[in-house]
Amino acid sequence: MSNDTEKKKTDKSNQVNQGGAITSPADLISGKMAKFAADLRYDDLPSEIRELAKLVLLDTLGCGLAGSTTEELQQIRAAMCEASGGVGNTLLWGTGEHAPLPQAALANGAATNAREMDDFEGCQHSGSVIIPAAFGTAVRVGSSGKELLTAIVIGYDIARRAMDGSGGNRPLKDNGWHSTPVCGGFGAAAATARLLGLNPECIQWALGYAGSNAGGTWAFIPDGAMSKRVHPGFASQSGVISAYLAKSGVTGPTQIFESDWGGFFTTYAGDRSTPHKAVEGLGSDFRIRIVGFKPYAACRGNHGSIDAILDLRREENIRPDNVERVVVRGSRTHVKQLSKQDVQTMLDAQFSLPYAVAVTLATGGAMLDQFTPDALLRPDIRALARKVTVVYDEAENLLGGEQPFVDVHMTDGRVLTRRVAIPRGDYRNPLTEAELRAKFRSNAALVLSDFQIARLEEQVAQIGSMDNVSPLAELLVPAAR
Asked: The pTM is what?
């Protein structure tokens, strides 16, 4: 074959057809994302974004430690260890056990999501997908703290942009897709690829693999199945494997977002997708800025109602004995997803507005101690939950809100109505840094000693000055009791 023929073949392979126009792979959405992921430098990040990256790391590690203590995680860890033959060099958080990096990313992602306290408003739950992949990779390759923080920012950005390009969470959810695992793998792949030092071409392949392997549906709701915990872990694992495949030169699809047949947006969101939003402000509008931190151990869809009940407890002195019934008026999604009264599993409770309202009304809280196997058996809470119904209200949909109205029917005939449009924890109604740190300490205390907790918090605060983050993993191992 002549040199001219070989050159023409190479040139053609480096171009794709988009609506009749020939363009370079680098000009595709994944190409632009890949260049951003390869080129971003720590010094490019505004100081507030750097500090936010530290907080999401701290919050995620705390959530992962708390989640590691659940029975579900014991089973998930056992499965990962059995699958790997008990051999591996990546820590399973909150234990002294290890597994290969992909299996550890799955287990640690599941642990982070297990208590329903992980962050939100990324790809819904970005921390449980991106941090296990990025942290595990950074420890394995000996990355600096600055590189880890930069990779976290990249991962959060790309995962959210995949969802924004889909038209947001609603089109995906309406089609039965769970946004966290469907979009999160893009972020995990980008973060891992960056820490591996891949060039833009390879990062683009990694993104192609993440899109090819995206999945996860809402079918876990009727059973209260444990698979919901594994969803973030699957996406984290997928991101790690995607990056390593690309590193080895195993090519992935460059048209993962644009392809008419099998493209991510057309497949998952159809004509409701908004592809231009995937790259809007890329490199300047860091989407990690919209991350929220949960104050309660329940699905975010419950938080507005929890806040409403807490407000009414404080302002109107409502108590179980002076409440006749409670009606939560929301969207069809609230009815489908959050209306279960008779909860059987922890997941049931975390995704139940009746349980969340009942436990908040009765105890004034909705924290970890209210979402345990023993807590679910309390007859007073179960009876109170049967007084709470979730109904569809067209007015809620017309308002375009994500949070429902709460009508508390009192025994004296009054009806007290409250709606909290932006619950606590949203970036527009944020927790204070002191509250976030208190949350971390409370979560970590389920596994670590006071000394370990203080040391881990201090090290994360100073991570930007660390040349190698590997010693951080040692702080996630519980001390001998």
From this structure: 0.94
